[in-house]
Specification:
Layout lengths: L12 E6 L6 H17 L1 E2 L2 E2 L2 E6 L3 E6 L8 H18 L8 E6 L2 E6 H9 L8 E3 L6 H7 L1 E3 L14
Antiparallel strand pairs: 1-5, 2-3, 4-5, 6-7, 8-9
Helix pairs in contact: 1-2
Length: 164
């Protein structure tokens, strides 16, 4: 059951998929249609899931499920991952590589490998004040408060040079 994202509880489980490139407007329109169809019919063992999504910066897809309504199952999670894999094939993008790290450079969003991120941090091109995207957040409240933060407030801080 597709609902307004804002109506989901703060404890709603969330998954964030980041693309290795920005979506075109045409791709965003098609992704929205597919997400709305998918979420509108998304079930857990025959029971509706109360869920929603957001597309941020035309580069991130966040899917949230209110488990106070019905808990998500392994099969229903697999179905959502399969949808992301379909997007990957259709649009020649990478949404499921967890070793890609995203950060902002002024207003530009950069997606780099973990190794490159570590090198940039060593070279102090990335500092404690660099805005990063913490795709490890697990619920809606964390997404809203701790997803887009400075590196010193995220797991990314472990890679920062000590004098940052």
């Amino acid at each position: 059951m597709l609902v307004n994202f804002d109506s989901l509880s703060a404890t709603s489980k969330i998954w964030i998929y980041q693309s290795n490139r920005e979506f075109s407007e045409k791709e965003v329109a098609e992704i929205k249609i597919n997400l709305e169809n998918f979420i509108g019919n998304w079930k857990r063992h025959g029971d509706d899931l109360k869920a929603s999504y957001q597309i941020k910066y035309n580069q991130f897809i966040a899917i949230a499920v209110d488990e106070n309504y019905n808990e998500v199952s392994g099969c229903s999670i697999d179905a959502s991952v399969n949808l992301m894999k379909q997007f990957e094939q259709k649009f020649a993008i990478d949404l499921t590589n967890k070793l890609n790290i995203s950060f902002k450079d002024n207003h530009n969003i950069n997606i780099v490998s973990l190794a490159d991120f570590q090198n940039y941090a060593k070279q102090q091109k990335i500092t404690s004040k660099t805005v990063v995207f913490n795709n490890m957040v697990t619920n809606k409240a964390d997404f809203e408060q701790n997803w887009e933060v400075t590196a010193d407030k995220s797991w990314h801080k472990r890679f920062l040079a000590m004098n940052n």
